[in-house]
Specification:
By secondary structure, the chain is mainly α. The chain contains 4 helices and 2 strands. The chain has a two-stranded antiparallel ribbon with strand order 1-2. Helix 2 packs antiparallel against helix 4.
Length: 115
C-alpha cells in the first residue's frame, strides 16, 4: 500500500521502526542462530534415515535384539530427537528470547499508554 499513515503523528506506534531497531534485530538474530543450525542438522538426520531405509534395507533390517532392528531404533531416534529439539528450544526461548521480547513489549506498551 502506497498510502501509509504516519503512526507517530496519529499517536500510534511505528512498528516498522521497532522491527528495524537494534534490539529487535538482535532478538531475531538470536532466534535464528538457534533455529537454523538445528533445523539443518535435523533435516540431514531425517534424510539420512530415509536414504538408509531406501538404499540400505539390509543394514536397516539387521536385528539388534530379538525383533528390534537398526531401522526401528533409528526411527524411534527420530521421535526422540524431535522432542529433544523442542525441549531445547523451549529452554533456549525461556532463557534468551523471552526476556528480550518482554522488554520490547513493555516499551511498546509504555509508548502506547503515553500516546
Amino acid at each position: 500500500m502506497t498510502d501509509r499513515i504516519d503512526d507517530e503523528s496519529a499517536g500510534g506506534i511505528d512498528y516498522v521502526a521497532v522491527e528495524e531497531s537494534p534490539r529487535f534485530q538482535t532478538l531475531k538474530k538470536t532466534q535464528r542462530s538457534f533455529i537454523f543450525p538445528l533445523a539443518a542438522l535435523f533435516l540431514i538426520w531425517y534424510f539420512v534415515y530415509v536414504l538408509l531405509a531406501a538404499f540400505a534395507p539390509e543394514f536397516m533390517g539387521q536385528r539388534v535384539w530379538g525383533d528390534i532392528t537398526i531401522g526401528l531404533l533409528l526411527g524411534l531416534g527420530q521421535f526422540i530427537s524431535t522432542f529433544a529439539i523442542t525441549m531445547g528450544y523451549v529452554s533456549f526461548a525461556n532463557r534468551k528470547l523471552d526476556p528480550k521480547a518482554q522488554e520490547i513489549r513493555e516499551d511498546l506498551e509504555n509508548t502506547e499508554v503515553q500516546a
